[in-house]
């Protein structure tokens, strides 16, 4: 990493890498509860069973949404799911001038790569006062619903934009990232 100044692109997972972990619990706790509600409503089951399915699909299919799309394509619409689960209270997020300064000092053009959707990512980044630092958000929709930890959507984005992987540094919080 001694050549970090040579980095042309800094690609960051939003949740778990961009903002303080205290916000992760606040945000993802809400998103997770909304996922459970959505699954219960769409599958006509109680919330206990819905939570079990949510967890099973996350571990088996990398995201709960991916598991739902694979196992219940007739009952689940991805756009509807994302809109529902990301309808959360962001009022606890505060503008973070220090975070802005720290990210701004990092080398390279900055890109978000997220399993969330573009609208939600923009709301979170805006709430933190750092949206202007990121030139692109590679979201789950642009990834054609192929979730991280797959890097195939990122590879496709890099190739399409003629960006060499060697010019990038990618920060991800999921341990099993990197398989294509």
Overview of the molecule:
It is a single chain. It is built from seven helices and four strands; from the N terminus they run E-H-H-H-H-H-E-H-E-H-E. By secondary structure, the chain is α/β, with parallel strands linked by helices. A four-stranded parallel beta sheet has the order 3-2-1-4. Helix 6 (118-127) links the parallel strand 2 (109-113) and strand 3. The longest helix is centred in the N-terminal third of the chain and has 23 residues, at 21-43. The two termini are 24 Å apart. The model has no long low-confidence stretch (mean pLDDT 91).
Write the topology of this structure.
Layout (H helix, E strand, L loop, with lengths): L8 E4 L8 H23 L3 H15 L2 H8 L6 H8 L11 H9 L3 E5 L4 H10 L6 E5 L13 H9 L7 E4 L9
Helix pairs in contact: 1-2, 2-3
Overall helicity:
40-55%
Strand order of the largest sheet: 3-2-1-4
* Backbone structural class: alpha/beta
Tell me the total number of β-strands. 4
Helix-strand topology string: EHHHHHEHEHE
- Give the overall average pLDDT: 91
Shape: globular
Strand content: 5-15%
**Tally of separate helices:** 7
Distance between the ends = 24 Å
Low-confidence stretches: none
Quaternary: single chain
- Report Rg: 17 Å
Largest sheet: 4 strands, parallel
Core attributes:
180 residues; alpha/beta; four-stranded parallel β-sheet
């Amino acid at each position: 990493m001694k050549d970090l100044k040579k980095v042309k692109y800094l690609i960051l997972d939003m949740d778990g890498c961009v903002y303080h972990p205290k916000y992760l619990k606040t945000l993802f706790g809400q998103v997770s509860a909304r996922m459970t509600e959505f699954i219960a409503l769409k599958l006509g089951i109680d919330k206990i069973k819905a939570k079990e399915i949510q967890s099973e699909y996350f571990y088996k299919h990398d995201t709960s949404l991916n598991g739902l799309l694979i196992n219940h394509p007739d009952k689940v619409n991805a756009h509807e799911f994302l809109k529902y689960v990301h309808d959360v209270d962001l009022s606890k997020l505060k503008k973070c001038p220090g975070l802005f300064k720290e990210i701004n000092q990092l080398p390279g053009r900055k890109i978000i790569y997220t399993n969330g959707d573009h609208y939600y990512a923009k709301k979170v980044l805006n709430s933190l006062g750092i949206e202007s630092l990121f030139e692109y958000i590679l979201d789950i929709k642009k990834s054609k619903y192929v979730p991280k930890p797959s890097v195939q959507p990122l590879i496709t984005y890099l190739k399409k934009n003629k960006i060499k992987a060697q010019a990038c540094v990618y920060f991800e919080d999921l341990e099993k990232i990197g398989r294509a």
